[in-house]
Structures are given as structure tokens and as C-alpha cells.
Amino acid sequence: MISVSIALLDFIPVLLFGAAAALLQHDLYGRMTRGAYALFAAGTIDATLAGLLKALHKLLYAMGVCDFQPLKQMFFPVQAIGFLLAGCGALYIGARKPKGGKALAVAAPPVYSGTFIFVGVMLAGLGMLYAGLGRVAAKLKKPAVVALLAVSFVFSLGMGYLASRDFTQPVMNWVAELVNVVAQGSLFAAALILHRSGLGETERFNA
Questions:
Q1: Would you list the domain boundaries of the chain?
Q2: Considering only CA atoms, which of 139, 138, 162 is closest in space to residue 148?
Q3: Cβ–Cβ under 8 Å, residues 175 and 9
Q4: Is 110 a residue whose pLDDT tops 80?
């Protein structure tokens, strides 16, 4: 049985990721093509909402209200697609906004009943997302941001490994939550440093 304290802790990394996404969306607007920014914004919002739904399911279950499985089952595919979209958009960070160009279009991957396909989708999305942000950090000469992004990426991969472990043991739930807090906390810290460095200012970031 999941405790209420564990369920509440699950909201913290979601809120940290959402805060990091909000900062990046604000600062990167105007640094990307319209289509790429739309992908990045939609993807990060999608991933945040997926996390909130999963945390909500865990809280309702811990409180004995209900066990609404669709909230849990939709988390992995929805978040995987969100990271893929965000990653595709992040590859174009620094590209100039066209004055009248066509928007970048992409087709969402088909939905499968299994989860294996979403493992690859999520890994690809995370890789592109962190690579794009790392390139920006390197351009702004922010080694601390690169280090934080590396920590966040490694711990995010750790979450994938922990997903295959036995969560009937309470200690595993605590370990997973703490790993996720470190992953998303590092991402938020990186986004905050980039924000304070003037990422959203034209004179500080030449596309």
C-alpha cells in the first residue's frame, strides 16, 4: 500500500519539471522557429500533465478513494510522446524565427498496446532535449548548467531502471521519488541559471 506521504512527494518532481519548463518556454520564445517552439512547448506541457495525472492517481489510491487505472496506464505513453516532441523542438534552439515560413510539422507516433516502443521514444526525446539545452549552456559558457543537465539526464535514466524494480517494497518507492526529485531539481536549477544569465535577452543570446 502506498502511503499518503509518498503520494504527496510524487508531486514535487512534477512541479519542479513544470517550473523548469515554464522558464525555458519563456526564455526560448524567439530563439526557435515557430514550429520548433510549438513542439517544445506542447511536449513539455504534455509531459507535465502526464506527471500530474500519475501523481493524482497515486494520491487517490493512497487515500483509499479509488484506483482509477486509466490515470496510471496513460502516463508512460503520454509522457514519452511529450518528451519526444520537446526533444525534437529543442534541436532547433537558436534557429532564427522565420518571418513567413511554413511551420514545422511532425506526425505523432502511433499508439501501441505494449510499452517497449515508448522506452525508445522517451530515450530519444530525453537525449534530444538535453542535447539541445546543453548546446545552449555551452554557447553561453555555463559549465555549471552543463553539469546540472548531465546529473538530471543520468538520474532520469535511473528512473527508467527503477521502473522495472519491485515497488511492493516501501523503500523502493522512497528511492524512486528521491531519484526523481534530484533529476527534476537539477533540471530546474539549470533552467533557473540560464534564465538569470539572460537567455531570453536578444543581446545576450545571438541566434
A1: 4-99+111-196
A2: 138
A3: no
A4: no
